[in-house]
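Take a careful look at the sequence and tokenised backbone pasted below. I need to know what the token row says about the fold.
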Amino acid sequence: MRNLTVSGKRKSRGRTITVNPERIVLSSLLNCLGVTREQLVEIGILVGTDFNPGLRGVGGKTALKIVRNGEFESALAEKQPGFDPAPVREFFLAPPVTDDYTLAWKTPDVEGVVEMLCGRYDFSEERVRSALAKVSVKATQKTLDAWF
């Protein structure tokens, strides 16, 4: 999914624009680009992921060209010697998953969320508290189950 937001809006170039959710189908995307899933992961490694910074000066179009030409390994060796892409590749191609979990809906731990988002990730405390206040109000609404 792309552009999946609670508000349906995002900031772009200093102004707020309305965005609509977009469903991206992997098989269609791969077919359109003419690459395999493994090559898509290589493109991601070249442009950067949450797990690696990517290559300086390499964007999506350049990465696609590098991968299509079979130059992934040589580009990495030249621009980022010593970087081993195997762990990043493995994470995307065979991500760790578990079936060992249970879901329980509870009131959010406001202070815990504020500590995590603001203390660790530099979110705005005012915005976090405002969003949590909205969630807390909705959490007290009755569900249809309550009427039966």
Observations:
- Strands lie at 9-12, 15-18.
- The first strand starts at residue 9 and ends at 12.
